[in-house]
Amino acid sequence: MQGTFQEKRRKLAQILETTYLCLFAVLLLYIFLGIASFPIPWKSITLNADGKTVFWAKVLFEAPYYLLQIIVLLRFVVQEKYELKKMFTAAIVFISGYYLWTASEHRRLLLFWLLILGAWKIPFQKVIKVFVRVIGPMMIVTTFCAVVGLIDDYTYTRADFIRHSFGIVSPTNYGAMVFFLVLCWWYLRREKMTWKEILGVFGIAVFLHLGCHARCSTVLTAVAGILMGMEKMLKERKHPFFISDVLVLSPVLAAIGMTVLTIMYQGTPMQQKLDQLLSNRLDLGKKAFDIFSLTPFGQYIRLFSNAENLGVEYYFYIDSTYLQLIIMYGVVILGVVLLVFLLIGCRAKAQKDWIFLWIIGLIAAHSIIEQHLVELPYCPFVIALLADTEVKPGLKIKEIFGKVWTRN
Q1: Can you tell me the distance from the alpha carbon of 62 to that of 18, in angstroms, rounded to the nearest whole number?
Q2: pTM score, whole prediction
């Protein structure tokens, strides 16, 4: 009888894990379609005749994400083996996240917090596999539809360049999404990355430059290709010990550096050259610091990008993740995000997961100029906090796409 009960509980735990991954896929797809230019009449789908959100859309897509909360709760109640210490930790994480959401009113924080909790003890390889399976094909379809004219391809000009967004809200967003997909692919493939794939990464960097002129994503995609080749050649050779510490601390160092440089920005010739290198992030960030005061949980700021077509004189957008977090989300939120990545990095170092450490370093550098560190469906790596990140052999391509995503 005891064995039968344990077997039923094990099967139910597996069902709940699968349900979480499926729900994660649905949320990814929904948010992706929200930033793509497919003419989907969301209001007629999600609203009733009275203008209120229909029940299924409310519990699935709106904060406080009731369905996701239920699945997360059941995953902790139904387990093969109860671990009180980890459950206590998860309870603290949930309470903290819920408080941060109510204090800041940013629903994105609650969504990420629930996704982090829901991924508890799930192999992170599975989470990334779901991400690649959903976002990868959707990016291919969206790009194709934009190129052949089935959906809008928003274009912008920079000097003599025509910048294509290929069906996404902006060229830089498209470039960022491709960049994070490359990192996810590397995380899954690991030592099985071939030289053809690495060459393909450089080809992607060239495509981003010619098609989007997304400089940050282009350069860092090329850097990722260099690191992939280096890791393939190094194999079992040891890395310099201090590099792992730098990579673990890279989000914190980048945040401190960007904040200090912005606050100290006075427009001197040397600072202007650095600002130009950082795509005017220092100048725009300095304006934000001059106008808005720092608060624990942030404030609403109306941002104006090129999408509004108001002209250069009205452009005001805080692109840097670190500046956006500290000004719009608050000092506390920035501290929590950096702590999460610090914990993830420390565990990757302890597990000697050099590929994950390089990925963290690349994400930290990307976040200096762009704002996608805690945005779905761009960067899923923050979900690794409570997931099982034990280093496993890289997956074959048929293992990524040829089996159901819930299998190891």
Answers
A1: 21
A2: 0.93
